[in-house]
């Protein structure tokens, strides 16, 4: 009998694995193996409720938009944002061509990787370093520079590649949401072109779903060839109130779910919270000094102060990294 | 025997109808019934070649990005851009609240729908009308205003709804490309928020794949509620060299195929043409004075001059609307 039924069982599996609601069917494998506790339960309860076709909270796939901050939400951000380390490395690499930087206290601090001195120069100093490290080349050249760095550079504390300092629980969450027909977007304060070269391989998020801060690019014709050249001029800051503004330009819909870890993500979470119908907000709270870092209200990087209060008030989910995540990073490559 | 094989045949059909390459299988229905001649052949040849998995021109689905201009490419644009008619209608509607407009030669011309006089005021005049008609309200309010207009307004010549002045052959082309795992985007000089409210229903293109020109929006908090308010200030002009720039910000990849109808689309087509590997460029040439409009080199709206020469030089496909399109518009609703 089983022999006769076998093709039909096979058909059943094919049907259930095909089309829009593939992941809402028979699930024998835990979709979030690195999660435990209340935040895990809240995620599963939310996803099941908005994908339950007969239910009161059902949301059609087209509106299942999930937005993720990057630094401190999808990958680590200590001791400083990884993009700043990239900028310092790049300045160091270019130093031979710029002997004048030796006499410049800002640029020589960048060459030494001296974050404290660089910070003293404020936004103006940072922009000067961005101009030196991120502008002047074509978009294609910059993509090559980022790709080479991300493949070779190592984190100063862990010795891991930066793409191995992504959070394993968040990789599972991204996959779980996509399996439930969510469209996943990055909405980062970091540079859009610093993330796009590797975000698809690492997070499964294609370039057109990666948004972030940007500098201006300019169309340049020379004879029969055309390039986009990166200019030393800010185009858009995708942080704080810039996040809902960027979401509006790029996506044109309010997210159904938003994930962040700092006050820079607060407006994105508030914008999502104001959506008509169901919505979901989650803060990753860095509470694990042993396996990662512990920081919140007073931190210069990824400060989470006002957001913690509002999360409590609103009932948003706050992930206690130390207790809610069984693992922090995926296995390192070597 | 057939009886025993039946389940397996069924499985075969399911497998072939499922997943990424669904449309490359058994096709008995003509995917482009309103097309004929060389441009039809070129489209089919191109799509078949980039989706042929063993072939030299194969392009994986993730890179099958197709970008479309809107005005004059997906829908008509005569006697003036439809968004300008919307702006005039809006100004007319607001005139009672602005008695001062009666003494203003620009605004009173807009109220009369007098395009010629308004044109005499140049870009400054246009921006004043945009400010009066497109700014001040929240993004949600503006969406409502556009939605109401698009559902009720009628074209001055055809008497049709504007969404019934989309091109039937282009609707077929959009569907054909998507069935072959292309991701279809609008890249329009028109306003992004003027298109998004109806583009999904009419073209099957969701808001996050609609890009265009935009004005600035501002995050506004009042107590516990948050809105984005539209400001009378330009944010981005998605025309000419703005098109590849916009594509770079929004998509981050060069399109595999690009479709336009005017010199405003030239740089988008050139950017696509410069892609490594195969690519496809198509100009819609308005040659049908009887069923639509005939215009090109000297037209104020949708001028196609330099583009025609470069298309000939580069061998881009130029659609002769009169001969290549069996139908122009879909059936009208009433």
TrEMBL record, chains A, B:
Gene3D superfamilies: HAD superfamily/HAD-like (3.40.50.1000). It comes from the Bacteria. Residues 1-23 form the signal peptide. The keyword Secreted does not apply. InterPro entries: HAD-like_SerB, HAD-like_sf, HAD_sf. One of its GO terms (molecular function) is hydrolase activity. Keywords: Hydrolase, Signal. The keyword Signal applies. PANTHER family: PHOSPHOSERINE PHOSPHATASE (PTHR43344). This is Haloacid dehalogenase-like hydrolase.
